[in-house]
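Please study the protein below:
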Amino acid sequence: MLKNELQYIEEILFAPETFCTDAISEIDIGWQCKLIRQAWEKAIFSDISEHSLVRYFHYHLDGLTKLLDGLSLYDYGDNLKNIEEALLALIDRIKSFYSTYFNPDAYAPAAYHQRLIGQLTGSIGLIKENLQTAMLSSELKTCLFNWLSEMTEVGDDIRYSFRSLGYLEELIRQIPSIDFCSGKAEEILVAILCRSNFNYLSFFVYRQNYIREVLVSFTSAQERLDYLQEQRANVLSCPEAKKLGYDTSWPSLKIMLGEWLQEEICLTEQALRRENEIRAETNVPKLPIEMSVAHMACLIRLLFEESVFATNNLKLIFKCFAGHYQTKRQSVISPGSLSKEFYSIDQHTAARVRDLLQKMVQRINRNFFPVLVVINAIILSCSDKR
């Protein structure tokens, strides 16, 4: 039958009489921890289900955390260090020997965090020293300094999971291997952080800004699109640590960057289509005509009012005429100028267009209705004789 193996220690450490007697000094914490380790080993080799074992060790891990955090509330004098070390050793045993049943997402006690920072002090100091003189972008330096400052701060109100602290330890051990005097230091550092799923918000913003700075150097949408697609392919092909990251509750850096790049690709594709449309319009040679913009607008209005166009969209009509015709005085006609003239036609303009239309009618009659022309000529001659 599984039970709370920490019960005796809890009762001794937090019993009221402990603080007014020398009972605390008589506790053989080493012996008590040995009994706990034996009980754990016995549980492992028993016929207890896996599910029960998970709950058993998770319960003891939480119990050890509460014990360690509770120690800071009382004054145990010289015994405090020995008690802390013994309880931390029990956590280490679960993590090392019973890793299957260890809960990495549980919050670690402050003493565990503090011990880890003490173990990493040398490496963290070396990293900070190298960052000061390294040829890295200021944004990346600031990002790493903020992360180190945040993760090394220990306090009663600051809690990280065992997984987060394990991630810190792994990353701290990798970074010092970089040659920060090398011209490729930033490239190597970024590669390590990406593979390690460093989904720290400032680092994500740094990666976005870096890509945006490169995009500014390209003059065409096609070049920007090619670069974005290349970056997305690199991001998707980059291996990353599984179940590890600065914050495992957030999406991975790979997902965040990949989705952002996909959005940028969609926007750039739209810009490319607009560029192609504009290029297609500008490549079509404009047809010169022997009339002014005002006369053209008047003719457009007549055609529009007679429903010659199969659309009522005047903006589209103005854009089409402006893009394909030019007058003697204006090689470039704006849709706006056509619209202005369309709504401000005067009698002089109307008269010139009427003369043009009458000449067109006369030409039609001559070319297609010659009999009518002869009859009209006879009628006119008879009228003159009278």
